[in-house]
Amino acid sequence: xxxxxxxxxxxxxxxxxxxxxxxxxxxxxxxxxxxxxxxxxxxxxxxxxxxxxxxxxxxxxxxxxxxxxxxxxxxxxxxxxxxxxxxxxxxxxxxxxxxxxxxxxxxxxxxxxxxxxxxxxxxxxxxxxxxxxxxxxxxxxxxxxxxxxxxxxxxxxxxxxxxxxxxxxxxxxxxxxxxxxxxxxxxxxxxxxxxxxxxxxxxxxxxxxxxxxxxxxxxxxxxxxxxxxxxxxxxxxxxxxxxxxxxxxxxxxxxxxxxxxxxxxxxxxxxxxxxxxxxxxxxxxxxxxxxxxxxxxxxxxxxxxxxxxxxxxxxxxxxxxxxxxxxxxxxxxxxxxxxxxxxxxxxxxxxxxxxxxxxxxxxxxxxxxxxxxxxxxxxxxxxxxxxxxxxxxxxxxxxxxxxxxxxxxxxxxxxxxxxxxxxxxxxxxxxxxxxxxxxxxxxxxxxxxxxxxxxxxxxxxxxxxxxxxxxxxxxxxxxxxxxxxxxxxxxxxxxxxxxxxxxxx
Length: 505
Hints:
Elements: H1 18-85, H2 91-107, E1 111-122, H3 125-129, E2 134-135, E3 138-139, H4 149-154, E4 157-163, E5 165-166, E6 178-179, H5 182-190, E7 194-196, H6 206-220, E8 223-225, E9 237-241, E10 244-253, E11 255-258, E12 261-264, E13 267-268, H7 271-274, E14 279-280, H8 286-301, E15 306-312, H9 323-335, E16 339-341, E17 351-355, E18 362-366, E19 371-373, E20 391-401, E21 407-422, E22 428-433, H10 440-444, H11 450-474, E23 477-478
Parallel strand pairs: 1-4, 1-19, 4-7, 5-6, 7-8, 10-14, 10-15, 15-16, 16-18
Antiparallel strand pairs: 1-20, 2-3, 9-10, 11-12, 12-13, 17-18, 20-21, 21-22, 21-23
Helix pairs in contact: 8-9
């Protein structure tokens, strides 16, 4: 048989072998089979899609039917109830149901807030030099507060006045108080939630000290009021305490102007910082009243339910308030302030329950709650050896909202304190609470306290005893929720009587 071989033609064309024709035929058959398979797959997918759409339609019909059945059932039940209970004239049953819902909602509004307010913390030189607190460049003031920290933490919100600037260096005591950051750290660690900064030593570190004090407190998570970072920031703070919104504002008295410039503690404050410090003139408080009017109005917009004014005022070392304090306190009561807790004469002044001139409002007033911590010891106070500057007081307010939303002062506790100092081997200080004097030595491990503690309690009770009883006998003190009154609407109830101020410390 003649062998068939591939022959080359012109232009490189090929003449196929007989085996190549068979291969083409087989390939064609495979293509036809694949086309049939693809067609079958398309048919199956189309069938599945039809079944899926059918199930979807059936499900939609089923849901619609169920909704219709439920609707018919509701209408049927309502018709039966209406038939059983009578016509729409049976409104009392409907009203009762609504009232129960309202009552349930009101019950959820019941709340209690406790606020603890302590007096002045003054960082005299021994706190900066004592080896008890200073270790190289580091300070630790935590031991000072070990016997009062439970009082801070037992309250929902605790406050104190800090009479110093946190300058980050160049520390000093009297007359310009510049303290280490460690004191703020200790306050935060022991339970203080807010510092009152509108006081007569807040500007002891100048503009930088003022700003830095706020920055350090921000870092430590401590709120503050009385000063602010920018002039357009609020002059007050609002704290939600267990669901009760409490508003606080804090003002310090100004000293005599220098060349028309505002001064705090005799230090001229530049115009920029002057706008950042809440201050007032005790002998001419009209601008204060205007500020308070606006503050109370703004607080109302913020939903505040209870207001606390914290004034920094008075004649140093005088255990009675003066006429300026009386007038301002009465005006704040008339304007609707709920509590006034003040400092800083460095001694305790009386407690009272003031009534507004229209008889519609009552305000707890502690004219000054004394030193919480200082070195103003009897042995160091020239001509002032009566011991009053060693005494202080914490005021604990219990504010309650009842089921109907009414606010009242449900409790007012006045806890006396005394600053203990041990000079061996170096100055060591403790703030001692005196509400349980019988067990004080046992609870603290300190000895020979009886005479000093008894003397301190006698001094404090002699100043505030009657006023504390007056307040506590009046509890609970219901808030009448007076509308904010303008300064012009409030009547003066006291006559001014100028008294000289001694601002030296």
